[in-house]
Design brief:
alpha+beta, Phosphatase 2c, domain 1, 7-stranded antiparallel β-sheet, 6-stranded antiparallel β-sheet, globular, transmembrane, membrane
Length: 350
């Protein structure tokens, strides 16, 4: 009897109300897909019932829209986030006026991860003992840290630390960040709400993520750490372990933009491409058609020559996009485990 093949991924999730809240307005998603999986965290806002509804509505819409989509995964994920935004916005009436939610979504497609990010939930990558923070918070205090007006420690305890500058349900067009990165066997990904990242210091996150335990066990350890630190907010952790190397998908991975979140239509236009090669294709098609019309006696030669040139440009465009997708910016580690030693805490315990 043949042994069952090892799955390429393993995942686990846990969401908890925390120690100081009565209602859990966080929601989480882990959905297996034929070539990977869809994972997400949403942190609702706008009152107990409204926040809970917004978070769950966002994840339900995200998953359904993604599964129904036919575009390449990066575009399909961005479109699914926009659909979730509209679903939240259209339900924000009556007693639910003002509701919204953060949304952090991750697609694993073969050997690549694609991240869509709105708000202040966070994505981390543990790779070879180094912890990389993949996302920047869309919040007032995060902006003050980037400007140098606050330190990370001051931001962690600031009275406005929960004020987000970007969320689903605020306007018709969502603003989001979308980027991809290649994955390796041994990688461990963490998606979490600020009830974890805002309470447990990065050095503690690294220590817990380094545990050789299942994703479910690590998610439980992370939630316990946040509760042990007071549990002031709802806590959610999604862990994804990459168990096998896989080839990269055929499409170019989206490159992270330096200007922060972009409106979804502008982001999709950039992803679909407006490169000079696209204009070359249009020009070649135009002159081929014009040549056939003006010199019909040579239409066969002109048509063949035009087709060869068009195919050559298309091939060059695919090679260029593939190279861009296979060499994204390397994540910068925020912490690394020293050989034989636990990482030193550079922050006070929260």
């Amino acid at each position: 009897m043949r042994a069952a093949a090892t799955p390429p991924l393993a995942s686990g999730l846990l969401t908890d109300v925390g120690r100081q809240r009565r209602v859990n307005q966080d929601a989480a998603l882990a959905l297996d897909l034929p070539r990977g999986g869809l994972y997400a965290v949403a942190d609702g806002m706008g009152g107990h019932a409204a926040g809970e509804l917004a978070a769950n509505l966002a994840l339900d819409t995200l998953s359904q829209h993604y599964l129904d989509g036919r575009a390449a995964p990066p575009e399909r994920l961005a479109e699914a986030v926009q659909a979730a935004n509209l679903a939240v916005l259209r339900h924000a009436v009556g007693e639910y006026v003002g509701m919204g939610t953060t949304l952090l979504a991750l697609i694993v497609d073969r050997g690549a991860a694609i991240v869509a990010h709105v708000g202040d939930s966070r994505a981390y990558l543990l790779r070879e003992g180094e912890l990389h923070r993949l996302t920047d918070d869309h919040s007032w205090v995060a902006e003050q840290v980037r400007l140098g007006h606050l330190t990370e420690e001051e931001a962690r305890h600031h009275q406005w630390r929960s004020v987000v500058s970007n969320a689903l349900g605020g306007e018709e067009r969502v603003r989001l960040e979308l980027f991809g990165l290649p994955l390796r066997a041994g990688d461990r990904l963490l998606l979490c709400s600020d009830g974890l990242s805002g309470v447990v210091a990065d050095c503690k996150l690294l220590k817990l993520l380094l545990r050789r335990e299942t994703p479910d066990q690590v998610a439980r350890a992370l939630v316990n750490a946040a509760n042990d630190a007071g549990g002031p907010d709802n806590i959610t952790a999604v862990i994804v372990d990459v168990l096998q190397d896989q080839r990269l998908p055929h499409y170019a991975l989206p490159v992270r933009q330096g200007q922060g979140p972009m409106y979804v239509d502008a982001l999709l236009s950039a992803q679909r491409g407006s490169s000079p090669l696209t204009y070359v294709l249009l020009i070649l098609a135009y002159f081929t058609l014009l040549g056939v019309m003006l010199m019909p006696e040579y239409r066969t030669v002109i048509g063949l020559l035009g087709a060869v040139l068009l195919l050559g440009v298309v091939a060059a465009q695919r090679v260029t996009r593939a190279r861009l997708g296979r060499s994204p910016r390397r994540p910068t580690p925020i912490l690394a485990a020293s050989a034989g030693r636990e990482p030193r805490d550079s922050h006070k315990s929260s």
